[in-house]
């Protein structure tokens, strides 16, 4: 029937019920033959029915691990064939993949993880559902992990961490998901390459979480596409901005503390990523701390003062600004003198009749807003852009540029070094007498005149010494 299926698939599809019944046969070879026929019997109308039948056999305790792995591979093959042509609902397919990952098998975890990644990247409409399911999986994977399905779940954790990090904008509870990823990365038996993926996607989730907080505070400002919003004009808006800075500092300090646990990881990739992320977060804390200190030394926006009624000194408009000290040097002329603000205020009180110079300086909340916006723009730029699917054979379709010769040398190789042969006399000590060398040549040294070339000076091996017999010994041998 397998040969008939290649040329006449409709003839085999009529026996679908018989082939599905063969999956319950006691002979495993018959069950495997039936699995080979299923991929040619699938249509859009019967795919869900066939998959449910295969999943029901997976839950049977009588089948072995090999047949269980073949069942899972068959489910993936019949659903993904022809670029998921027969899949009507991708939400259903993602649910099936997660259900298969929780089974007691340890041979198909990589296959299921690749399918989850492929579906999330290729099908944009299913990303929100996939992200929600992966977040639930990360929060509950510790409770569902057993010795038999541990390896399979580890591979699915790889896919779940990447999906939640790449499409973090769909997360309903990003802070809880971040904590779940950090907890999962600290599993003792977790492979190193999966731990490194979790560590990196924690940073990716952090960058998108702080951008979402900034958008909530500023009324929907996107840090990557929108310019800095106008500074807040009310006291409540300025207080919300300062509360945002405190919130960002708290989250950054929390992530730094957790990431420091992986600085001494046994896996070099995880260790390198943890060190880089920790240093990056340290710089973020320094900049946010400086911005918060600037905001703390600056007054909140006040209503405009009434017009002056007299010209006897302009100090009345300054009010309590004489006590403000610019410790960070953020004046309009970028002065680094912390007492320059006090001196300027005192001189203005004596010389300037009106406080008109305050209108030319930006309000303190504007500096704070622009500073936070700049930090978040730099963080968001680390993972800007969208990942697009690439076919496995796409490289073959890229033509070679004109004039490119892949067999030609980019740089000519250096010439081989010239070998110089030393003469036999140079190999001897300088204090050796010449007649000694000539005397030795009579015993077995080949002279230069005999052979010449590279064989000059070689010593011939000495053969057996000749035996000389006396006359009495010769007579004795002859008599015998």
TrEMBL record:
PANTHER family: AP-3 COMPLEX SUBUNIT DELTA-1, DELTA ADAPTIN-RELATED. Gene3D superfamilies: Leucine-rich Repeat Variant. It is found in: Endomembrane system. Residues 1-282 form the Clathrin/coatomer adaptor adaptin-like N-terminal domain. SUPFAM superfamilies: ARM repeat. InterPro entries: AP3_complex_dsu (IPR017105), ARM-like (IPR011989), ARM-type_fold (IPR016024), Clathrin/coatomer_adapt-like_N (IPR002553). GO terms for cellular component: AP-3 adaptor complex; axon cytoplasm; endosome membrane; presynaptic endosome; terminal bouton. Belongs to the adaptor complexes large subunit family. Its main location: membrane. This is AP-3 complex subunit delta. It comes from Mesocestoides corti. Residues 295-325, 343-371, 410-480 are annotated as: Disordered. GO terms for biological process: anterograde synaptic vesicle transport; Golgi to vacuole transport; neurotransmitter receptor transport, postsynaptic endosome to lysosome; protein targeting to vacuole; synaptic vesicle budding from endosome; synaptic vesicle membrane organization. The lineage of its organism: Eukaryota, Metazoa, Spiralia, Lophotrochozoa, Platyhelminthes. Residues 345-371, 419-432 have a biased composition (Low complexity). Residues 300-309 have a biased composition (Pro residues). Keywords: Membrane, Protein transport, Repeat, Transport.
